């Protein structure tokens, strides 16, 4: 009877195969999740950096009469960077887990809302309230979906997550 596997060996082999497959899917899902988190954090940092550029006006280091021109320049630069960030966002269709896929889609929608806000601010700086509300809703949805995906994969937040609303030093 040499060559025949015992029931115990068959069970252990089956468990090992299942663990290997689950680990592979987990690794792939985690890579997609971290990519989505990174894209989202890049989008949030754009807004933080644009806001930080307005600080000299609040501190009266720059004259207030320069504000409209400065805002247009800041928003135009932020819009261009937001478009680049959106263009670099990956395709959510390739994500293996539905929860992670929904998070990636929500991040893409938040990036699209950010571009729409900046477009509206460039086109008509006094009339972008609807886009601002849409961006807030998209950001809340993205953060919620990312949190759900993290729980699904049993992982914590990405490094730097707590600083997502801060402008990194350049």
Explain this structure to me?
With 170 residues, the protein is mostly helical. The chain has a single domain (7-163), classed as Four Helix Bundle (Hemerythrin (Met), subunit A) (Up-down Bundle). It has 5 helices and no strands. Helix 1 (7-52) packs antiparallel against helix 3. The longest helix has 46 residues, at 7-52. The radius of gyration is 22 Å and the shape is elongated. It starts with 6 loop residues before the first helix and ends in a 17-residue tail after the last helix. The model has no long low-confidence stretch (mean pLDDT 88).
Number of strands: 0
**Oligomeric state as shown:** single chain
Largest sheet: none
Strand content: under 5%
Rg over CA atoms: 22 Å
Level of helix content?
A: over 70%
Mean pLDDT: 88
Low-confidence runs (pLDDT<50, min 5 residues)?
none
In CATH, the architecture is Up-down Bundle
Quick gist of this model?
The protein is mainly alpha-helical and 170 residues long. The protein is built from 5 helices and no strands.
Layout of strands and helices, then pairs:
Blueprint: H1 7-52, H2 55-58, H3 67-88, H4 98-123, H5 129-153
Helix pairs in contact: 1-3, 1-4, 1-5, 3-4, 4-5
Features:
170 residues; mainly alpha; Four Helix Bundle (Hemerythrin (Met), subunit A); 5 helices; 72% helix; 0% strand
